[in-house]
Amino acid sequence: MLTKGTPGISSAPQRTTSKRASRLVQKGLLFVALGLFAGAAAVAVKPPVNSNEPVIFQARTTLDLPHSFDSLSNSFSEPFISETRIRRGDTLAALLQRLNIRAEGLQQFLTHHEDARSIYKLYPGRAIQAALDDNNQLQWLRYHHTPSATEDGRPVSRWLEVRPDGQGSYTATEEFIAAAPHVQMAEATITSSLFGATDKAGIPDGIALQIPEVLGSKVDFLRDIRKGDRLRVVYETYNQDGQQVGSGRLLAVEFENQGKVHEAFWFTNDSGKSGYYDFAGQSLQGAFLRSALKFTRISSTFGSRRHPIHGSWRNHNGVDYAAPTGTPIHATADGVVEYIGAQRGYGNTIILKHHSNYSTLYAHQSRFAKGLRKGDRVEQGQLIGYVGSTGWSTGPHLHYEFRIAGKPVDPLAVDLPVARKLEPAQKALFTAAAAQYKTQLSLLQSYQDGSLVAVNQE
């Protein structure tokens, strides 16, 4: 046992001090690591005065880190960009305040300078962006005001850009850029309707509307679709600054309808002519659409019926499509206007002459497409008139007739003529394009079947 005043320690206290010192050394190493990260110091150990004192760490000198926090903060040179949407009733002053802009003379410049006149009209929903540096100084102001499109249908983003001129005032210029196209794929299953399925699959409305136009000669989308039918599409969208700003063209489609598969894709030959073809090389443009209206219902079919006005039994030589007055009517195939005008019980009528001995009749129209005259050439899908109730009619609808050699036949039952096949000289180019779309559509099929991983591994 140790006596008071006797130097030294027993073995038990020695082990305790050793453990404590070990823990303190570990803590010290941790402090060193943290100190280096935070710009702290080199350290040295102060020897204990006697063996009972704890080990103490003291900072002697500070070290400069290779990259200090100051240098890191100074390396961020990009401005801070904020955006706000115009609300109904907004003023220019309110918008600048929301963007935290305090640029002297800016509001006066925007409201008086002729080059900034596009900001005179604030459209609710449009965006205004501002870029500020780390000193809260304005770098630029942008007002995205008037969307438009190029000749080929690509969305164009247009904006007014205002910048400081370095002399206490500002400059304003109109800028624009066409959105970049992107290719996307999607698969949908019909549960209630075509457009319900495309909405659920996230397919844009602009693409969904093209599907009946492309496959209208193969499928009657008013009567033929069934629950469980599957749709696969490859299509274009347009993006601007990472956001989707519009949809483009339907590039390829595969529709499984009642166990039968219908396919089509967009093909441009080496002479610049484009159109939709099936994978066998048969053009769909030149074939007849099953319906002249996109959204409607059949109110009367082909055949004998009691006339709704005269009450007697008569042959009904066409199909009636009920639709609201003003619904657009489209030509079901390429042709020439053979007749346009009023025709007794038919009311306002258009007759189109097509290739061979085919013709079509569109009756009871409220009005015709502007500028359309006898002898004009029309293309499949072109607007020719609008649904009405002229002539012998009890309500707005389109009476549509399909004639062969002048004789009406049932357009819902007849085998519609198809276009010619692809020219042999275009076959190689066509085959390469078809293979690309087939691969993309098969990926969607593989994903549906749960075998997409296996396809990717191949």
Write down the CATH class of the largest domain.
Alpha Beta
Judging by the overall fold, what is the CATH architecture of the largest domain? Roll
Overall pLDDT, averaged? 78
The count of strands amounts to 25
* Number of helical segments with 4 or more residues: 9
Q: Largest sheet at a glance?
A: 10 strands, antiparallel
Characterize the structure shown.
With 458 residues, the protein is an alpha+beta fold. The model is unreliable at 1-61 and 450-458 (pLDDT under 50). It has four domains: 13-67; 80-178, Nuclear Transport Factor 2, Chain: A; 180-287 and 420-458, Nuclear Transport Factor 2, Chain: A (Roll), CATH 3.10.450.350; 297-409, Glucose Permease (Domain IIA) (Distorted Sandwich). The protein is 20% helix and 36% strand. It contains nine helices and 25 strands. β19 (335-342) and β20 form a beta hairpin. Strands 14, 17, 18, 19, 20, 21, 22, 23, 24 and 25 form a ten-stranded antiparallel β-sheet that branches.
Q: What layout of secondary structure does this protein have?
A:
Elements: H1 11-37, E1 41-46, E2 56-62, H2 69-74, E3 80-85, H3 92-98, H4 106-112, E4 127-132, E5 138-144, E6 148-149, E7 155-164, E8 170-178, E9 180-189, H5 194-200, H6 205-208, H7 210-215, E10 230-240, E11 243-257, E12 260-268, E13 274-277, E14 297-300, E15 303-306, E16 313-316, E17 319-322, E18 328-330, E19 335-342, E20 348-353, E21 358-368, E22 377-378, E23 383-387, E24 397-404, E25 407-409, H8 427-449, H9 452-457
